[in-house]
Design goal:
With 151 residues, the chain is of the alpha+beta class. It has 2 domains: 2-43, no CATH class; 51-149, Immunoglobulins (Immunoglobulin-like), CATH 2.60.40. It has helices at 2-27, 34-43, and strands at 51-53, 57-64, 68-77, 85-90, 95-98, 109-117, 123-133, 139-149.
């Protein structure tokens, strides 16, 4: 009985993985049509902001292990709708975001600070963060690189 349940579970999981891979392959390489999304949200009277980051990648250079470096991502609201960062996701406890939750008006600029703690991170560190906002591109991926030299 247990062997049959295991076999059925394995077959179901294999089928699910196959389906997910098939769906992923069908969408691979397809671009998202932001203008379509914008038109649909506008038909619902949802107003989205638009933001422009000065750079989406920053090379933080070299630092010594144990130092904390600040990586600054500058951005500007290029729309008439106030821009608000809802959250910033990092995947490493070595990176801490600091940003304003105050809405940014048209043509105003803001600063997203990432504090990178190099303790125990000797070598080249490539880190990514995702900014979640009320922008047309709800998710904005930013990244930086820091080379940590041994003390």
């Amino acid at each position: 009985m247990k062997k049959e349940c295991k076999k059925i579970t394995i077959i179901l999981l294999s089928s699910l993985v196959g389906l997910i891979l098939q769906i992923g392959c069908e969408f691979k390489g397809q671009n998202v049509d932001n203008s379509r999304i914008e038109k649909e949200t506008n038909s619902l009277n949802i107003k989205l902001s638009d933001v422009e980051f000065e750079s989406t990648f920053i090379d933080g250079g070299q630092i010594k292990e144990g130092e904390v470096v600040e990586i600054d991502f500058k951005y500007k609201n290029i729309s008439d709708v106030p821009f608000v960062i809802q959250s910033v996701k990092t995947w490493c406890s070595c990176s801490s975001p600091k940003y304003s939750k105050t809405p940014l008006l048209n043509n105003e600029t803001g600063l997203l600070e990432i504090l990178f703690d190099s303790q125990g991170r000797v070598g080249i560190n490539n880190r990514s963060i995702v900014v979640i906002s009320n922008s047309i591109d709800k998710y904005t991926k930013l990244s930086f690189k820091v080379e940590v030299l041994k003390k």
